[in-house]
Amino acid sequence: MDTQKLWTKNFILAALSGLFAAMVFYITMTTLAMYAIVSFRASASIAGLIASIFVLGGVFGRLFSGQYMERIGRRKFILSGCFLFFLASVAYLLPLGIVSLLIIRFLHGFTFGSIHNALSTVVLGFIPPNRRGEGIGYFSLNFTVATAFGPFIGMFIVHAYSYTILFTFCAFSAFLCLLSALFVKIETPVFTEEQTAHLKEKFTFKAVFERSALPLAFVIFFMSLCYAGVTAFLNSFAAELNLTYMASIFFLVYGVAILLFRPLAGKLLDKKGDNIVMLPTIAFYAASLFTLTFAQTKTLFLLAAILMALGYGNILNMGQTIAVKSVDSHKISTATSTYFIFSDAGMGLGPLLMGLFVTWKGYAFMFLIEAVIVTLSILLYYGLHGRHPHAKGSLV
User: Fold this and answer.
1) Which segment of the chain is annotated as a signal peptide (predicted)?
2) 100: how many CB neighbours lie within 10 A of its CB?
3) What radius of gyration, in Å, describes the C-alpha atoms of the chain?
4) How many C-beta atoms surround the C-beta of residue 396 within 10 A?
5) 94-108 pLDDT per residue, tens
6) pLDDT at 182
7) Is pTM, for the whole model, over 0.85?
8) N or C: the chain end with fewer CB closer than 10 Å?
9) What confidence score (pLDDT) does residue 3 get?
10) How far apart are CA 346 and CA 381, in angstroms?
């Protein structure tokens, strides 16, 4: 019987710090485009850039984190990142123009990518090795809660109050992110001379990207590419069907379903191996997109949300677990960075690429294309990772 504790003070505080940061991310992602249009009369393309440049900043932040966190020191890196994240959140309250707002958004994304990658690395040290899938599943629920409630809170504040109140709320959430991180006991790992030399390598592809994490990183790229199409166009698709409110309900049901299913998936991965979780979850994800293709009723929207929770809702964090579980301690930060860089790239490119299919044949056709891509990704996963003996677990 496992006697190692998962729910320690450090684990909880790290998860809370990540939650408060993720709330700021999702609140601003869903409100900043409209803010730019209302306040600066920005065009749709500029407004979209103001929203999405945050993701670009996050990619660079993850690159920086993976390369330099161990050099600077984990605690110093995280606290500095959280403090700068707080300052960037406060900066929205200043009188800004379009150019300065773009700069703030990039820097905000950079600090978010840095601290999210760092927290995702540090928290692994708080999780018992034989409960890593379960632990990462619980830790990543901070993003799930933010996904479900961040956009709702953001739109409520904007409609009921003002953008000033919205930015004040974001600054307060960023402060709580810093405050939570301040009380996390972050120990400095001890590395060998060879590992230290590796950490001091120049900024090259080999130093920035962890090779062992690339197979799962390639898989998550296509998974996130398709999910970005859902987040970007589901609201418009629902409006076209005169079911506008179902888009909000979809993400709420999606978030609640993940809260129920994800811990079970983590435990299953720990006990039975990678394939017994990843293969069915990719299939569930494809099924959710096929369901959206033919969704004309509330029931099909709700079914698609539950299937997506069983699918993409588990793929993102289970893929991270697999990507880092066999990596040496001095490479965990780089492996985590590699994985999320590919995920962010998919999220960033998704709306652009999937928008081409929407323009060509409409929303339903786009979901069909996404369903095909995800179905083919079963073969991609198996070819890159699943066919290897260490992925098969005890059932094979």
Assistant:
1) none
2) 12
3) 20
4) 11
5) 998 999 999 999 999
6) 96
7) no
8) N
9) 47
10) 16
